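Troubleshooting log. The previous run stalled partway through. Resubmitting the same two chains, unchanged.
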Amino acid sequence: MPKRVAVVENILNANDRMAQVNRLRLDKSGVLAINLMASPGAGKTSLIEQTLPLLVSRMRIAVVDGDLATSLDADRATAAGAHAAIQINTGGNCHLDAVMLGGALEQLDLPQFDLLIVENVGNLVCPASFALGTHLSVLVASIPEGDDKPHKYPGMYRGVDVLIINKIDLLPYIDFRMDFFKQGVEILNPGVITFPLSCRTMEGLQAWVDWLVEKVRVFKSRASETQT
Amino acid sequence: MPKRVAVVENILNANDRMAQVNRLRLDKSGVLAINLMASPGAGKTSLIEQTLPLLVSRMRIAVVDGDLATSLDADRATAAGAHAAIQINTGGNCHLDAVMLGGALEQLDLPQFDLLIVENVGNLVCPASFALGTHLSVLVASIPEGDDKPHKYPGMYRGVDVLIINKIDLLPYIDFRMDFFKQGVEILNPGVITFPLSCRTMEGLQAWVDWLVEKVRVFKSRASETQT
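Second attempt completed without errors. Output:
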């Protein structure tokens, strides 16, 4: 194969290879990692804030927050009880990549943790293209964004393992056709696990938390089987 | 200056140079162009839908819609009375650039129009870095996104000429501190023209429409002065 093609392939695959390195480190340490993605303001940070208090007595949790400029999100994760919170400032970059996450993992004593929540930059486009090495991709959609979003951001909706539909408390005040939204999702990502909830009223939150606890339990038991 | 530096500079400036070409074409045709940017679901398309019926009897309007995949937005602009609507499918790209807009301008008989509204891809990061050659940048923020967004997306808030705060009808149902939001805006973009409104109830919409009509009037009278 000509040398030049190999070089181009290496560049293209650099992120994926680093993502594999991250995955291996997480697996070895028995940490289940989720990549939390959403449009700006859909409620990623609120979800972390409301989920953590229901989890911190049952498992040890680290949060990595990607943001353009501030450390507001890591501060909120710490206040919500995260056992560790690291802020990645992307310096204007529109997504996290595997190298950025790798740098954050360096700062964590991974075997101490059971769950790592990575909060990506608020963006429905670019984060979908950059694998981080996490085990699960979770998309937080929200009612006020409108029911046409699966149709308009297919790359994001197609690639996620879990779909959270946040701000259901606003349904009475917004023209949101849940059937139309779910049809759009179904075409792109049939059977995707879905949790409608409200981080404001807490409605529906327990189902998501229970699911996450079970996921961590199964992951840890498999990890310990592999090691014995 | 070494040749290599010049090459790098040319690549970096390619978008800006194409933006200048677009601007010249728009100026020569007497078309005021606005670049409408927002987070997904903040209400760019709804704003176009509600604004157009109030304008179409007074001026001729073209709409260029940037989207990842569908033509839903151009269809809605046409239904709202746009005299022309062109859809740019970015094929997954997270922003419009000046070359894409240039291609759309080719398809329009520009001197026929007074106003061009360019609806960018829903994204609070990348579109801020790509000049299109438009005269005004308008950001549509929305109440459900939360009051911390200026702090978290400074590049976007810093660079716009007009800020629309949409969905104010949802203020009673959401914890949104308008003072905190406006403080964030003021630090980044002091004195930016701001229109709080609701595309759902039409509250506040007339002020925005009146401002836009006046902008087009001044622009057209200057353009005709330059030509005489």
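Takeaways: The first helix of chain A runs from residue 3 to 29. Chain A touches chain B at residues 39-41, 67-70, 72, 92-94, 121-126, 129, 142-146, 148-149, 151-155, 167, 169-170, 173-175, 200 (CB under 8 Å).
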